Amino acid sequence: MDLTTIIQILDSSLRLATPLLLACLAGLFSERAGIFDIGLEGKMLAAAFFSAGAAFATGNAWIGLLAGIGASMVLAAIHGVASITFRGNQLISGVAINFLAAGITVVIGEAWFGLGGRTPALAGDARFGNIDLPFARALSDVPVLGPIYADLISGHSILVYLALATVPVTWWVLFRTRFGLRLRAVGENPAAVDTAGVSVVGLRYAAVMICGLLCGIAGAHLATALGAGFVKDMSAGRGFIALAALIFAKWRPWYALGACLLFGLLEALGNRYQNIDIGGFDVPTQFMQALPYILTVVILAGFVGRAIPPRAGGEPYVKER
Amino acid sequence: MTDGLPKWVDIAVIPLINVLLALILSALVVWMIGEDPVRAMTILVNGAVGSAYGWGYTLFYATNFVFTGLGVAVAFHARLFNIGGEGQAALGGLGVALAMLYVPWPHWSLALVGATVAAALFGAAWAAIPAYLQAKRGSHIVITTIMFNFIAAALMVYLLSRVLLVPGAGGSPETARFAEATHLPNAFALFPWMGWSRSTPLNVSFFLALLACVGVWVLIWRTRLGYEIRAFGHSEPAAIYAGISPVRITMIAMLISGGLCGLMATNAVLGEAERLVIDPVQGAGFVGIAVALMGRSHPFGVFLAALLFGALYQGGGELQFEMPSVSRELILVIQALVILFTGALDNMVRMPLEKVFVSARRRPAPPEPTSPKGADNDPIAKVEP
Questions:
Q1: How far is B56 from chain A (nearest CA, A)?
Q2: B232 CA to chain A: closest CA distance, Å?
Q3: Is the dihedral of CA B193, B195, B198, B204 positive or negative?
Q4: Which residue range is the domain that position A127 belongs to?
Q5: Which chain A residues are within 8 Å of B133, Cβ to Cβ?
Q6: DSSP per position, A244-291
Q7: Chain A residue whose CA is closest to B79
Q8: Cα gap B268→B12, rounded to integer Å
Q9: Rounded to whole angstroms, how far apart are CA atoms B270 and B259?
Q10: A77 part of a folded domain
Q11: Cβ distance of B147 and A284 shorter than 8 Å
Q12: How far apart, in whole angstroms, are the C-alpha atoms of residue A60 and residue A51?
């Protein structure tokens, strides 16, 4: 395996890791505030559809992005109403949102475009183009570092860089601001936050809506940057891989980056090679696809580095009387 | 706390209101995409129950959903949320396929017994690891069962495309057809005078589903084990105090749940496809969640809810045929809304109704509930991580 191949694989890992990373950080906000969210998948899917639809109609990827974020935040609001206001079961609400998105995208897509649930292919400004970082071409002749800078670091869509920038921002918001402290507290001990005179409901809604925002960007990336248009079920379990990455990262932003890059790499390898030969042993591509899930189960089992979720996760908060 | 509500409201009125809300919203969706909701509903109902052909498919789908719904319901009674029905049913299909392909069954009745055992064992085995991790290591069963769905999907693709693939099967990977002797008689063969079409998928495993309903009812409400499962579901500390082992109950409830989900394969794999194809489950594992929630985890309720969803699935297919602009996925929307209203937004309907009933009774209002929802009869109000 030469340098070009390695760079190509890493390059595609980064692209594939981007939606995972955004969805994973989305889940991080929500779950840190004590709201379990297995509806990441559905929010991404809805965002992918509406971003592609709006981008096709207007020819502008940015309007598409806004539409995707809007759709995702509507679903996030439903999740918030169900799990915060009506204190329903957060897991069931998430399941419902996944089905709602899977159904409604195809129903509306078929009615609007009549292409069996697809949107027409996007081209030109309707997609997020790749950005060449400064001096990328000039430096590409430099041995080793040149191609790494020109092909791996440069030449991605703006959403990839946005996703990478979200990691330190998330860390800063959660661990260096008053809002972040309160948000984490609400996921560990909402009663204490309530006693301090801070609104538990308000904080949780804020977290859920941030989650919707980030899932919206993730979905828009799928349909208008990674792909060129929406196809039925295009999120293809990525919301669940993001959930797996979140657990793998033990609900921490920097580890989330690592986990998502790892899972992105697995996907890139699986796409590139049908079989991987390790020491004469033939590893089928299906094993690579299942590996993120297997790793998550192993982590959850607690035999290797135990993952402990936020303490108040999944519990509706009821004021003491 | 259902102090304010009579039982019949809880088990009949609230689910009906929930389904009505879901249908009204779905009708709105149909209206918004420029079609006539009334006509769509008429086609849907006619397609599902308007002919013997429609009934055959409706009851066939309902059979699948009874199995997965019962599976989810048994886990609900122990306050465990089994999202893994999809994977467990797929593994059940694998069990059925292996049993049919490698054992020379002389007669379909014996084959059905063999398939039942294999499907239940494989389904239960696939639930065993998440169950063990929940019981012993406290790993959240919802997450592990989701992960096991994906692992099952990858495993099935691997096995079908590399190991069990029959040469020359055409495009999609599938196993060889099961032997002629194992083919289950369908409704046409059993009751020709009832006007079933010759190729109806409805088959003898429908009775197995009925049997499973009765079996689960006996188990949950008439046996010591069922009592222990319910006690554990209502209150874990109380159950422990009463000498009930949480590890044992978690394991047993999940094994039964996985086994029931696996049984779906007797209908879908042995009864209809007569070979194992990629994704024999077709989402039935997830429909089971909606069915169990709507049926209030009671076998009779599960049966009725399964009928409703069977009709929706069959009618939805017809709907797409008659109104091409309304896609089959409309069923997914209805399913999602049913899950949302019965499972997550239950309090939205329950709270106003409680107020109405309390004021109608003209007595001092009971103290406001401190627990968020009907904790007494909602076995999954709190799924502990």
A1: 25
A2: 19
A3: negative
A4: 21-236
A5: 297, 300-301
A6: HHHHHTTT-HHHHHHHHHHHHHHHHHHHH-SEEEETTEEEEHHHHHHH
A7: A89
A8: 30
A9: 16
A10: yes
A11: no
A12: 10
Q: Is the dihedral of CA A170, A175, A177, A183 positive or negative?
A: positive
Least CB–CB distance from A117: residue in B327, B339, B346: B327
Decide if A290 and B133 are in contact by the 8 Å CB cutoff.
no
ipTM, 2 decimals? 0.89
The answer to whether A227 and A126 have CB atoms below 8 angstroms apart is: no
Q: Whose structure tokens read 């402990």? A: A308
Q: Cα separation of B255 and B78, whole Å?
A: 12
* Residues of chain A neighbouring B337 (CB-CB closer than 8 A): 96, 100
B198 CA: distance to closest CA in chain A (Å) = 31
**CA distance to partner chain A, nearest, from residue B192 (Å):** 37
Instruction: State whether A92 and B344 contact (CB < 8 Å).
Output: yes
> What are the tens digits of pLDDT across the range A193-245?
999 999 999 999 999 999 999 999 999 999 999 888 999 889 888 999 898 88
Q: What 3-state class would DSSP assign to B176?
A: coil
Q: Which residue in B has a C-alpha nearest to residue A99's C-alpha?
A: B336
In a domain, A259, yes or no: no
Tally of CA atoms within 13 A in the half-sphere of A246 that contains its CB: 26
Is A239 touching B (CB cutoff 8 A)? no
Contacts with B313 from chain A: Cβ below 8 Å? none
Number of domains in chain A: 1
Burial grade of B7 (CB within 10 A; 0-12, 13-18, 19 or more):
exposed
- Compute the average pLDDT of residues B256-269: 96
- As a whole number of angstroms, the distance between CA A67 and CA A217 comes to 10
Q: Are B297 and B27 in contact (CB under 8 A)?
A: no
Its pTM stands at 0.88
DSSP state of B323: -
